[in-house]
From TrEMBL:
Ranges where the UvrD-like helicase ATP-binding domain occurs: 138-417
Pfam families the UniProt entry points to: UvrD-helicase (PF00580), UvrD_C (PF13361)
Name of the protein this chain belongs to: DNA 3'-5' helicase
PANTHER family registered for this protein in UniProt: ATP-DEPENDENT DNA HELICASE SRS2 (PTHR11070:SF2), UVRD / RECB / PCRA DNA HELICASE FAMILY MEMBER (PTHR11070)
Length: 756
């Protein structure tokens, strides 16, 4: 049904602009829409696979109005008869001056080559143990078998997504132990996360005749855990656990202390980004003396790096990065011990090799020098951690650095349907720097990936939620679904939609609430102060945005007592040496006070323009991270659109901030839940159905990579394409890619990666 009434207005979806759908959807949820024929409440359907329509909640006695053809209702008439129903059409909300933007139907990705069935060739296995594995359902194809049984010498396994590298690693380990009787203590098995090391051990224990004592003797874990154990064994005092700087806040505290010497403002300088930069240098074995700082930002980071290292050395502290660098230096300084380890570790098995960084590579190189039995598995198309110092060059150059390397390609994809695999192949084939391989799907049970076109982030979230609800009703489980995004802040709308539903969902443990982001907290502080003029915290939080020092808070407090006024009026009494600032301060009370009576959007505009928040964001200058403050504010405007009052918005913000803590608790439990995650964190995982948010230029590829591309740098853009490839290949059966028509309030353009 295309017709509904909202108050006196007749709404005809035929003429409605796509931008109004979310508002109508919300009105339907608030029971504000009625059927013009039977006057019962109706709601708006806003999903992926069908264009929007109104529907009655009741299922019996269908309303005859549902059959009224929307086309037959003209745009402007005061009243008309249809099928015996009198429809008041006094005014439709479709009377727009400009032509309404129509709803775009979802479409499947077309032109994938037809599926050619090539059943994986059953391998001729001569190993008794592998035969036993096969008999319990753990088959290997020819290439997997070769990878599992080529034990000596350097081996590079280039494995496409979903091609069974985890299976190969575990079977190979079992083969080495059981068939070749290799001493487990001589095997080092390195995984990307502690979780995958554990999973591999558990999987091994399900294999025939595998004893826990044998498995536990393998040296397995992440690079950090393995090399930390070595340090702890030789220098237990120096590497005591209580000396580890575990948390970012601890490290940032040290940086902030050092930053005072440079007069870096605590609230303005991006210390978290500086910490990332220091880690990047360290993992690339670039010490302070090696840094050639190129701009002010790098100069500040270098200064902090020196001070940070000094502080740790003086106080005996160390951080995670020191574990690897420390172990490398320790082994270099103790050639006798290095030789012992070289003699002990005779076999190296390294997973996710595409994401290895310099220090990790060097450690493996020095330890494997005697026998070079180094088995690495990776997919250069899934290298997505360059911001942590990982470099796909190591996988690209492996055969060169380890002469005699046998290269094995695993290209059969056992995870995803043919349409998904073909789409992913077509996407990644556009990358120039890659070792060529084309995946081939083993099955064809799944539809073509879908592109759908919501108006904005809000409608995107609604459409996904509707789709999940439909599939759950048909028997799917919450854990069948993952919603993937480029950066955390993009998850705001879908988080809010899921939080308001009864669908269980989980989010990564380090996800922060969108409203807790520095820039957002700063702008919301103005709104909070407006609503509660006695809010000391809010008064303190607006100071830096007004270019006032934190010490002004004391003066404000004093003025509230002396003048018997609230914090808002106290701004008018603050004395500064600059006439222009004094004039500005005099205007502040009226401006802040006005905010609470405005719509949230109008209030935000006053804060940005009249109260100078826009200037503040710009002057904050080095927005070294990939997310910019100005983008956060555009995101906030999209969120604020749904609220009529500032108070309602703040109430929502507080609710959502509390909610994220609660959801993080759920995430610790093993529950059947929809997964919200960044693409980075989804690596190695698989789901029946995957939704990818905002496949538009600026988001994926991210703006920073487009900027780099304009300056002639291709690598960041290619890494973004790999992210899309990783996202697409997480899906087993269904892949739904959202291409919103607007993003952050501006027209958005489909991701250039989708032009395949
Ligand atoms: N020879 C095989 N026959 C049948 N199924 C297989 C075979 N090899 C692997 N699989 C299945 O294929 C799926 C993907 O395997 P796995 O997770 O090991 O892939 P992967 O290469 O680690 O993927 P990615 O790199 O994309 O994370 C798993 O469900 C696994 O059980």
């Amino acid at each position: 049904m295309k017709l509904a009434k909202s108050g006196d207005e007749l709404i005809n979806l035929q003429y409605i602009s796509v931008s109004q759908l979310q508002t109508l959807f919300d009105q339907g949820k608030r029971n504000e829409l009625i059927c013009p024929a039977c006057l019962e409440q109706v709601k708006l359907y806003l999903g992926i696979h069908e264009p929007p329509y109104f529907y009655h909640q009741r299922t019996t006695n269908p309303c005859p109005g549902a059959t009224v053809e929307a086309k037959s209702v003209p745009k402007t008439e005061s009243s008309m008869e249809l099928n015996g129903f009198k429809l008041p059409t006094s005014r439709t909300i479709t009377e727009e001056k400009v032509e309404p933007t129509p709803f775009l139907k979802a479409r499947p990705i077309s032109k994938n080559p037809a599926f050619v069935e090539t059943p994986s060739v059953p391998s001729t296995i001569t190993s008794t143990y592998l035969n036993a594995l096969q008999s319990i359902g753990i088959q290997l194809d020819q290439e997997q078998l070769l990878a599992a049984t080529t034990v000596d010498g350097p081996v590079l396994v280039l494995s496409g997504a979903g091609s069974g590298k985890t299976r190969v690693l575990t079977v190979r380990t079992a083969y080495m132990l059981m068939e070749q009787q290799i001493d487990p203590r001589s095997i080092m098995l390195v995984t990307f996360t502690a979780k995958s090391a554990k999973e591999m051990q558990q999987r091994l224990l399900t294999y025939p005749n595998m004893s826990p004592s044998l498995v536990s003797q393998i040296v397995s874990g992440t690079f950090h855990s393995i090399f930390y154990k070595i340090l702890l064994f030789h220098e237990p005092q120096k590497w005591r656990r209580d000396l580890l700087l575990k948390w970012d806040w601890e490290k940032e505290k040290i940086l902030k202390q050092a930053g005072r010497e440079l007069e870096l403002d605590e609230k303005e300088f991006a210390y978290d980004q500086a910490l990332g930069q220091i880690g990047l240098w360290k993992n690339s074995l670039v010490f302070p003396r090696d840094v050639r700082a190129e701009d002010d930002w790098e100069k500040s980071c270098l200064f902090l790096y020196e001070k940070y290292e000094e502080y740790k050395a003086q106080n005996g502290y160390y951080d995670f990065d020191d574990m690897l660098v420390g172990c490398y230096q320790f082994l270099q300084n103790h050639p006798d011990l290095l030789l012992k380890y070289q003699q002990r570790f005779r076999y190296f098995l390294i997973d996710e090799f595409q994401d290895i960084n310099k220090i990790q590579y060097e450690l493996i190189k020095i330890l494997s020098i005697l026998e070079k039995n180094v088995f690495v598995v990776g997919d250069d198309d899934q290298a997505i951690y360059s911001f942590r110092g990982s470099d796909p060059q190591y996988i690209l150059n492996f055969a060169h650095d380890f002469p005699g390397t046998k290269t094995i390609k695993l290209t059969e994809n056992y995870r995803s349907s043919h349409e998904i695999v073909s789409t992913a192949n077509r996407i990644i084939s556009r990358n120039q720097k890659r070792l060529s391989k084309t995946m081939h799907a083993q099955h064809n049970n799944g539809a073509a990936p879908i592109l759908f076109y919501p108006y904005d982030e809000e409608a995107e979230a609604t459409m996904i939620l509707t789709d999940i609800q439909e599939k759950l009703a048909k028997g799917a489980r919450p854990s069948d679904f993952a919603i993937l995004y480029r950066t955390h802040s993009m998850s705001r709308a879908i988080f809010e939609r899921l939080a308001a539903s009864n669908i269980p969902f989980i989010i990564e443990k380090d996800a922060e609430s969108f409203y807790q982001r520095r820039v957002i907290r700063g702008i919301l502080a103005f709104l909070r102060l407006s609503v509660n003029p006695d809010d000391t915290k809010a008064a303190g939080d607006v100071l830096s945005a007004l270019f006032l020092k934190q010490s002004v808070l004391q003066e404000l407090k004093a003025q509230t007592i002396l003048q018997d006024c609230d914090y808002i009026d106290a701004f008018g009494f603050v004395q500064t040496k600059h006439a222009f600032q004094q004039r500005k301060l005099k205007k502040i009370p009226a401006q802040i006070r006005s905010l609470k009576n405005l719509s949230p959007l109008a209030a935000l505009e006053i804060i940005e323009k009249d109260l100078g928040y826009q200037d503040f964001i710009k002057k904050r200058g080095n927005e070294a991270g990939i997310e910019k403050g100005s983008d956060d504010i555009r995101d906030l405007r999209v969120a604020a659109k749904r609220f009529d009052t500032v108070e309602a918005l703040l109430e929502h913000v507080d609710h959502m901030t509390a909610m994220i803590q609660e959801v993080k608790q759920w995430s610790r439990q093993d529950i059947d839940a929809v997964q919200l995650t960044t693409i980075h964190r989804a690596k190695g995982l698989e789901y029946e159905s995957v939704y990818l948010l905002a496949a538009v230029d600026g988001s994926l590829p991210h703006d920073f990579s487009l900027e780099a591309y304009r300056k002639g740098e291709l690598a960041p853009l290619e890494e973004e394409r790999r992210l899309l490839y990783v996202a697409a290949t997480r899906a087993k059966q269904q892949l739904s890619i959202s291409v919103p028509q607007t993003r952050r309030g501006k027209t958005a353009y489909p991701s250039r990666f989708l032009k395949i």
